[in-house]
């Protein structure tokens, strides 16, 4: 994300002052708004093997190639529990973001980074992998100035489709922006997800109102704070708005369904150029005869089919029937082929929890 300009103006991993400021008040020592620490952690043994001021190489763990060089300007230890409490609002080790932080090395190293490689993303994903410069050029060529980003780590079901189409009504177009980094067990891989999205947009969207691209970042499942990060780096990609629906970037029941809406109202004015496009709980209403939201549908819960990516994954993983109101048939064909091809040891039980269980 640094190398392609996704995290501009960051040019390296954060030092202690920046880490402390971002955790406590979402502000770096320079005064720059930033909602989640961007740090590099190593073991104490590794940190002891070089001195401050050293030039080091950052290595791809998969193939051993150097993906960047870095000048180490600072080495420091952190209070991981404090980072988890401020960023994730929990220290529960079952939270996947907390687990990630607690398993990191004891020492953070800071300093500017010179990126040498894009980690194989362009080769693996082809035209889907786009830099901020490329998306901005694409929007300009299409005549788009008002662009909404739709953040996704899931294939798009009918509720996602509805959110995107609401945004198209008020914007020039929508960038369906898929995460290409690591997910939690049971999530659908990026290549399968993007094929499913492609067949949806080909069959159910007006041409030149939506484009799909991917970005190289892992999910943190930090809920409200991650929603702010998603908006922040979409500025670099040229998006004026970010679609923020129910439980954006959440997991389980750690966050309220609309905490990610409310946090945009709590940050200082001018912190972000990209603004939230807040959309209420969406569902299929049998009495309305179509997709609706809590703001537009007057009917009761028993008339509504609540949709979620977790519910869809659970139905598909168990081989259950999926209602037509839940997902488009062309999308289901792609997803069923994926689940049908999984070996027994590759299958992960999907459990409903939090808002997905309702």
Protein architecture, described:
The chain has 2 domains: 12-119, Sulfate adenylyltransferase; 121-358, HUPs (Rossmann fold, 3-Layer(aba) Sandwich). Helices cover 31% and strands 19% of the residues. It has 12 helices and 14 strands. Helix 8 packs antiparallel against helix 12 (329-340). The relative contact order is 0.12. The mean pLDDT is 93.
Structural class: alpha/beta
The topology string of helices and strands comes to EHEHEEEHHEHHEHEHEHEHEEEEHH
CATH superfamily of the largest domain: HUPs
CATH architecture assignment name of the largest domain: 3-Layer(aba) Sandwich
**Could you say what the CATH topology of the largest domain is called?**
Rossmann fold
Strand content: 15-25%
Instruction: Based on Cα principal axes, name the global outline.
Output: globular
What is this entry, summarized?
By secondary structure, the chain is of the alpha/beta class. It has helices at residues 16-25, 44-48, 80-87, 96-102, 121-125, 132-142, 158-170, 190-204, 224-236, 259-262, 309-317, 329-340; strands at 12-13, 40-42, 55-59, 66-71, 74-77, 107-115, 147-152, 173-179, 210-215, 241-244, 275-278, 282-285, 290-293, 304-306. The protein folds into two domains: 12-119, Roll (Sulfate adenylyltransferase), CATH 3.10.400; 121-358, Rossmann fold.
Topology, please?
Layout: E1 12-13, H1 16-25, E2 40-42, H2 44-48, E3 55-59, E4 66-71, E5 74-77, H3 80-87, H4 96-102, E6 107-115, H5 121-125, H6 132-142, E7 147-152, H7 158-170, E8 173-179, H8 190-204, E9 210-215, H9 224-236, E10 241-244, H10 259-262, E11 275-278, E12 282-285, E13 290-293, E14 304-306, H11 309-317, H12 329-340
Parallel strand pairs: 7-8, 7-10, 8-9, 10-11
Antiparallel strand pairs: 1-6, 2-6, 3-4, 4-6, 5-6, 12-13, 12-14
Helix pairs in contact: 3-4, 8-12
